[in-house]
Amino acid sequence: MGYVADYKDKFKQLIEIQEKYGIDSEESKKIYEGIDSYHVNTPVVGNFSTGKSSMINAVIGKPLLGVEITPETAVPTEIYYGDNKVYEYDKGEIVERSIEELPLKGLTIQTTDLVKIEFDNEFLKEIKTVNIVDLPGFDTNFELHNRAIDQYLPNSLAYLLVVSSDEPVLKESISEFLKELKVYNMPVYVVITKCSRLDDDELAECKDLLKKLVGKIVERDDVKVACVDSYGRVNVDELKDILREIQSQTGRIFVNKYSKALKQSSMLAEVYLMERIDKACLSTSRLEEEEEKIKRKMDDISIEIEKEKQNFDRQAKVCINTIKERIQSDLDGTIPTISAMIENGTDITEKINSVVRRSVRIGINTEFEPKLKKYVEHISEMITIEFPENELIVDNLGNVLKANVVDEVTKTALPVILAGVGFVLNPIGAVIGGILGVTFDILHNVKSNKKKEKEIDKATKAIVAEVSKQTATSIENEITKYIEKINGRIEQDVLKKKAVLEKSLSDIRIDISIEENTRSQDIEDLEKDLKVIKEFRNDNPEKEEA
Q1: What is the per-residue pLDDT across 24-48, written as a single tens digit (0 to 9) for each?
Q2: Measured between alpha carbons, how far is 51 from 45 in angstroms, rounded to an integer?
Q3: Alpha carbon 362 to chain centroid distance?
Q4: Is the pLDDT of residue 510 over 50?
Q5: What strands lie across the sheet with 77-81, from one edge to the other?
Q6: Closest Cα to residue 36, out of 69, 80, 98, 78?
Q7: Can you give the pLDDT at residue 516?
Q8: Which uninterrupted H or E stretch holds 162?
Q9: How many CA atoms lie within 13 A of 330 on its CB side?
Q10: How far apart are CA 184 and CA 180, in angstroms?
Q11: How many C-beta atoms surround the C-beta of residue 387 within 10 A?
């Protein structure tokens, strides 16, 4: 874990340099303070009663998680190495619990969002940066399917799919979930619980079947399958090996993350120092010319960015309409299936949820994200200030923006937008229930099969129309909010660059007024600090020990 101390030291040095020259260091401080609490998520997913909680208890070696729970009392729980603390997140309020109170009882997903457990344990210490996330079964609440993707995927390294040997099949909810993971090329490990109930031949057949089923969906032939005996002699050795394998990769993820953050955070300091050194010998009149030049350039950039924003807004509206049409078309295509499900008394909320999410996902991936990426790339080129003698600065500004901002927005756009759509989909369950309630009341007094089919068809079309309407509104709102967020960041970037350039010129004015020997010493200090900053900006993750 030497890389953690290494990056803490680098950020500490960066903050000292930023504060020395009055450069904004708030973002660097936030990153520095978050290094020690860095974790990579490993969500544990599966259907209810597959033995997920018992399996995690066996890995930890202590029954911290309740196993005698109902779907209503299943609450997402994060477990990671720490100082034996428990935090209960109750709809905005954080309640600290004692480790001795575990397993917690009486919690419900209606009142509690999340439980976090920091536990001092030899094995958890061994996988120190892995955050095991025990998610309630997908068949308990379709919202949890969404949450497993939207909340945890952006900072996850792999998912553990738990399947009971009693029922080694993949239900539709799990299959749809795996299809979403495939979009992000997210690795999946399969863990079979209650393995002692099968003999060796049956277990081998079960492992082979699940490897093929999961591999086919995620289009990978290297899916690993582990077995857990949770009765009699508890054996979680294979699962521990998987978690160790995930831990071995967290170092690479950590270094890549903080190397990028270091380069981005030190960019303005480099601009400032290079400007101070480059223009240290300018006369007062030349300095005024430079100030005027920067002002004109920043004004031009603001005008061009505003034009680009308006152009992108027009493109975004076209994307939104296309996504709305896709949702409507896909839902219309499921009307026969939904009608049949209603006739058979099957819950249709999960089916509708998966159709909508698939439509939104495809629409954003194919329509919105490519245009978003081009937009951010264009803006990054505009923000790049032209310095007549400092081409390095120009290259660095452009490259860093493209390497960080573009990658980040395209990675997070879909989960963020889908999360917002998910909030709207949840109340639709009540809408569906209301329409079906009226329909079933009518069907109770109808004897003709044709009239029944007509009423079911009418109810199905009403449900599809309402879901399409609410989802369309939600998509428009969420994409608009996301664009506003991106534009806010762009504006903030422009203002920061303008401020650091103005400050460098202001400080050069002070340099001109001081004695020659003092100025020489100041330039020597500037060059010394610039050397440190350049080392940060050239930070190479491949050289780090992961």
Answers
A1: 999 999 999 999 889 999 999 988 8
A2: 11
A3: 18
A4: yes
A5: 93-97, 85-90, 114-119, 77-81, 130-134, 40-46, 159-164, 188-193, 225-227
A6: 80
A7: 64
A8: strand 159-164
A9: 23
A10: 7
A11: 21
